[in-house]
Amino acid sequence: MAADMQNRASRQPQGRLIGYARVSTDEQTTEAQEMELRAAGCETIVQEHGSGASRARPVLSKLLRDISNGDTLAVVRIDRLARSVSHLLEVIEGLTEKGVHFRSLRDPIDTSTPQGIFSLQVLGAVAQLERSLISERTKAGIKAAKAKGRLPGNPGIRERRPEALAKMTAAQKAAYGTRIQATANQWLPTVKRMRPDHTWDDIARVLKQRDLDWTPERLRRAVKWMVAEGMADAALLRRSPPRLPEDRLMTLVAGIHSSNPGLTLREIASQLEQLHERTPRGGTKWSPSSVKNLLDRAKRSGLLPSKTV
To answer: Which residues form the active site (predicted)?
Structure first.
């Protein structure tokens, strides 16, 4: 992963230097971190109060979604950003895919420099070694337990103890939240553009055309979690209004275009055919002109800015 980051992080940052400061409790202040970040040149600094072990960090999640190509995210130390080495690498990989650099003021990590990339590669190797060692220890423990006639796994779970089941449920919810936050920048913008005008089924089909495998049920559940955590607007969960067939097609085409503005009219037509959408006249074959008409209507209705069509 780090080698791929090196290939994509060759150019120097051209955008903003944005600082992220975090403390563990509401009683603590981020003032010391802010001073250090401002001294490093950060014009914008976002603050968050939350435990280092906590997976729910709404401020960080929003920052990772909103930060732009060419920007640099800076922290005082890497433990202010990540819960673990693997989490750090995951966050940096997401930033690199968006063309964003990462810099830690007190650690030798700066993805805009060869030395910083090398340090990141070392961390990646350490994380891989750690995963391998954990796997080996787990296998050895299971083998030893079986040799002594014991069942592997948590006895509290096997015996259905309430405290053990509650702990397992909490861990599963935390892991689910982590997965949702890690991928939100891939699907949430499309949801925001299309909800509540479109059904969850429509949005899932649009995302599928981008090789994102979502069912309507899983998508709605993910958005409900984002809303509950304060990371998305509750309006996304409103019931979709009944729409005339042409109005539905208009907003669907507008949603496809907004999700990928680089698509040509012919490519949008091809996607509509793959979605098995009927044309306004009930046909199965879409022409670029039909797509253009719907985009023009979307522009007049305010669904799309004038410059997009």
So the answer is: 24
**Is 60 exceeded by the pLDDT of residue 54?**
no
Burial of 134 (0-12, 13-18, 19+ CB in 10 A): exposed
- What pLDDT, on the 0 to 100 scale, is given for residue 86? 76
Cβ-based burial of 182 (10 A; exposed 0-12, middle 13-18, buried ≥19): middle
Distance of alpha carbon 235 from alpha carbon 227, whole angstroms: 9
**pTM here?**
0.45
Domain ranges of the chain: 2-119, 176-237, 245-308
What does the pLDDT read at residue 158?
66
Which residues are known to be catalytic?
24
Tokens of 297: 């209507």
Q: What is the DSSP letter of 175?
A: H
Q: 2-119 sits in which CATH class? A: alpha beta
Tell me the pLDDT tens digit for each residue of 217-243: 999 999 999 899 888 899 999 988 776
> What per-residue string of b and e applies to 273-299 under the rule 16 or more CB within 10 Å gives b?
eeeebebeeeeeebeeebbebbbebbb
Q: Could you give the CA distance from residue 223 to residue 227 in angstroms, rounded to a whole number? A: 6
Average pLDDT estimate for 119-137: 72
User: With bands split at pLDDT 50, 70 and 90, how would you rate the model's confidence at 2?
Assistant: very low
CA angle at residue 39 from 34 to 44, to 5 degrees? 55
